[in-house]
Amino acid sequence: MIAHEIAGMIFISIGIVFIIIGIFGLYRYNNFYTRASVSSLIDSAGFLFISVGIVLYKGLSTFSLKMLFLILLTLLLNPLASHFTVRGAYLSGHRPRKEH
What we know:
There is one protein chain. The chain has helices at 3-26, 32-58, 62-91. By secondary structure, the protein is mainly alpha-helical. The protein has three helices and no strands. The longest helix is centred in the C-terminal third of the chain and has 30 residues, at 62-91. It is elongated, with a radius of gyration of 17 Å.
């Protein structure tokens, strides 16, 4: 294997580990707003590592330029979608529970 393929596999593995830890971490929280925040962060981090790993694995080509554009688009739109989801829940009357 070439060095960039090994680096790509490492990045993909790190992204998968981020997502798996995030899935188990979601069960720790009971509040909707905290879960939404954590899931948005884990999705972004996992997707970023997996996508960069794919770009490294494939090398420089038109495919990697398309993937870099997709990474940029996702990093801009994922927090925005999470914000609108949480804002919609808040405006519809869902309030955070007070924990004692």
